[in-house]
């Protein structure tokens, strides 16, 4: 009784065909529906803390990919780099897009300029993310700066405390003189 009869199935099939034809005309007609495209967003960072002259790995993290069809390439000082490059497969994200990682083995030196170039295969639109090694502050310079700042803060707080102590003492002496009926001496 709950099973559809053949003539009902033919009616449903005809309705599905008409709906499919209508959607096809909308999608391919003179004003087709816009195709979903994500503009990739790239970010480049080091895997380990920076030490100039020591091997490390640059990571290019590319998000907002849709459809999953991009090419990732690397450059160092404007020259393409292919040695030491590793690409991972696409990973789906919660926003129904994809992300992808690319790795580049590097030995960073001061003045290097690295570029991760992400190109959408469909329309050859490229997004470029740059990374330039920043000289880290030597730890002894940082320690000296922090020590100096803490010392200055300590002196400032000591002076503030001394000022508050003197102010409180002066008020208490003023209160005692007024109770005894003597005006305070002025110099």
Automatic annotation (TrEMBL):
<dbReference type="InterPro" id="IPR003597">
    <property type="entry name" value="Ig_C1-set"/>
</dbReference>
<keyword id="KW-0812">Transmembrane</keyword>
<feature type="domain" description="Ig-like">
    <location>
        <begin position="34"/>
        <end position="126"/>
    </location>
</feature>
<dbReference type="InterPro" id="IPR050160">
    <property type="entry name" value="MHC/Immunoglobulin"/>
</dbReference>
<keyword id="KW-0472">Membrane</keyword>
<dbReference type="InterPro" id="IPR007110">
    <property type="entry name" value="Ig-like_dom"/>
</dbReference>
<protein>
    <submittedName>
        <fullName>MHC class II antigen</fullName>
    </submittedName>
</protein>
<dbReference type="Pfam" id="PF07654">
    <property type="entry name" value="C1-set"/>
</dbReference>
<keyword id="KW-1133">Transmembrane helix</keyword>
<dbReference type="InterPro" id="IPR036179">
    <property type="entry name" value="Ig-like_dom_sf"/>
</dbReference>
<feature type="transmembrane region" description="Helical">
    <location>
        <begin position="142"/>
        <end position="168"/>
    </location>
</feature>
<dbReference type="InterPro" id="IPR013783">
    <property type="entry name" value="Ig-like_fold"/>
</dbReference>
């Amino acid at each position: 009784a709950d099973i559809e009869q053949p003539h009902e199935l033919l009616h449903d099939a005809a309705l599905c065909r008409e709906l499919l034809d209508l959607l096809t005309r909308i999608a391919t007609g003179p004003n087709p529906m816009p195709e979903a495209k994500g503009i990739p967003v790239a970010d480049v960072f080091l895997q380990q803390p920076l030490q100039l002259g020591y091997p490390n790995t640059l990571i290019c993290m590319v998000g907002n990919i849709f459809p999953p069809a991009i090419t990732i390439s690397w450059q160092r000082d404007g020259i393409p780099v292919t040695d030491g490059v590793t690409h991972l497969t696409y990973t789906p994200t919660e926003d129904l897009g994809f992300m992808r990682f690319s790795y580049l083995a590097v030995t960073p030196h001061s003045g290097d300029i690295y570029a991760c170039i992400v190109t959408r295969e469909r329309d050859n639109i490229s997004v470029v993310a740059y990374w330039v090694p920043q000289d880290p502050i030597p730890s002894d310079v940082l320690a000296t700066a922090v020590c100096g700042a803490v010392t200055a803060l300590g002196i400032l707080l000591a002076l503030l405390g001394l000022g508050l102590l003197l102010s409180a003492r002066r008020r208490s002496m003023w209160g005692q003189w007024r109770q005894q009926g003597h005006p305070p001496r002025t110099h």
